[in-house]
Specification:
Elements: E1 2-6, E2 12-15, E3 37-38, E4 43-47, E5 54-55, H1 64-80, E6 92-105, E7 113-125, E8 130-143, H2 146-156, H3 162-181, H4 183-195, H5 199-207, H6 214-234, H7 236-247, H8 260-267, H9 276-288, H10 292-314, H11 324-352, H12 358-364
Parallel strand pairs: 5-6
Antiparallel strand pairs: 1-4, 2-8, 3-4, 6-7, 7-8
Helix pairs in contact: 1-2, 4-5, 4-6, 5-6, 5-11, 7-8, 7-9, 8-11
């Protein structure tokens, strides 16, 4: 699958050799080359990327707008390649180190600043402190203050060029190898999260492993399913509450018809969960109030519902539009999985504490000192 992105060639860009003082895994030195390209019409063809990255931008002191603008520019670029998002594992981040290359103050009135900046973008693993790929971009900006000059430069950088997309692809290629070579460590990390009953975090760690990392992906499936099941157990009270809300929408339940919405919540409450007995009582209480005709119709629809769910389990190739009730069931499961992924991501963000990582501070925070005169302007 590919994405088409309008392409242009603004800004000076070059692939950067990683500085020797930074930790770079030697296993990544011969990464597979994956190049994007332009069509005859000047449209950039970008292969779909499979690993989500969390953008990280240091706060620029005295210019919060610059931080927001740069973060949004990165988000837009990686989203176009399917590379960003709220889910995934926030240990893998993309961010820039910013340097002021030259500063020129005009003699005109009012005074303007014509500055040149260098932004070194890096894809890194915050846990192992490993740089997967880097890409340097120089940008010029003009403004009536250093801050406005910097914002002008940020507006001029092109993060949708072939060079930048190839940088993302290089990071992905190396990250893919990382997953296979560090699969045992990721399983151990997930197990550590599970031991603290952070099942959503455990699920998020394993769910971040893409299917393209085939060896590791196959190894973690059983555990990933188990951790998701544990999130269902933990969240059973919420599922039961939603089931009750759906059943309570009828003023007169005695003649009400089959309620697939309520049953889609009921069906994903695990039999081993703490609230399953309560869910069963709620179900029995509701069906006991049905009049004979409604009860007969309900039982018939329930058997059909259960048959369709069972058929789906047996036939993984069944199409979504083949079974009406199966769609309701899968929609609820997808909703719960998305919630587990996002909430697990948030818990891992709190664990990794990007803003407090000394390594990340050293790697990415130079730009935050632009306005204090602490950076070299040589």
């Amino acid at each position: 699958m590919i994405f088409l992105v309008a392409g242009c060639n603004n800004g000076k860009q070059k692939n950067n050799e990683l500085q020797k003082k930074q930790k770079v895994s030697p296993a990544f030195s011969s990464a597979t080359q994956m190049n994007s390209s332009f069509t005859a019409q000047g449209v950039l063809i970008v292969p779909e990327l499979n690993i989500k990255l969390t953008p990280f931008v240091a706060e620029f002191e005295g210019s919060p707008g610059a931080s927001i603008l740069l973060r949004n520019r990165i988000n837009t670029a990686v989203a176009k390649a399917g590379y960003g998002g709220g889910g995934g594992n926030p240990r893998f981040i993309i961010g820039p180190n910013v340097s002021l290359i030259s500063q020129n103050i005009t003699s005109t009135a009012p005074t303007q600043y014509a500055n040149v900046y260098e932004l070194n973008f890096m894809v890194v693993d915050v846990v192992t402190e490993t740089i997967f790929a880097s890409q340097t971009i120089q940008a010029k900006g003009v403004g009536f203050s250093p801050q406005k000059s910097f914002i002008s430069a940020l507006r001029n950088i092109n993060l949708q060029s072939a060079a930048f997309m190839n940088f993302l692809l290089q990071g992905q290629t190396k990250a893919m190898r990382f997953f296979d070579e560090n699969c045992a460590n990721m399983l151990a990390e997930a197990e550590a999260e599970a031991r603290t009953r952070n099942f959503e975090g455990a699920y998020a760690v394993l769910n971040s492993i893409p299917s393209d990392a085939q060896e590791c992906f196959a190894k973690i499936q059983e555990k990933k399913i188990a951790y998701f099941q544990m999130t269902l157990n933990v969240n059973c009270a919420e599922l039961l509450s939603k089931m009750r809300a759906e059943l309570g929408k009828f003023n007169d339940s005695s003649a009400s018809g089959f309620n697939p919405q309520a049953m889609s919540y009921y069906s994903v409450i695990d039999k081993q969960s703490d609230c399953y007995d309560d869910a069963q009582k709620e179900y029995n209480s509701y069906t006991a109030k049905l009049d004979p005709t409604a009860k007969r119709n309900w039982d018939m629809e329930m058997r059909k519902y259960e048959d369709e769910i069972e058929m789906t389990k047996q036939d993984r190739e069944a199409k979504l539009d083949s079974f009406k009730y199966k769609m309701d069931h899968d929609a609820k499961l997808a909703e719960i999985k998305a919630k587990a992924d996002v909430e697990g991501n948030q818990k891992l963000l709190a664990k990794y504490k990007h803003d407090e990582s000394p390594w990340l501070v050293r790697l990415f925070s130079s730009g935050s000192k632009l306005w204090k005169g602490e950076m070299s302007d040589n």
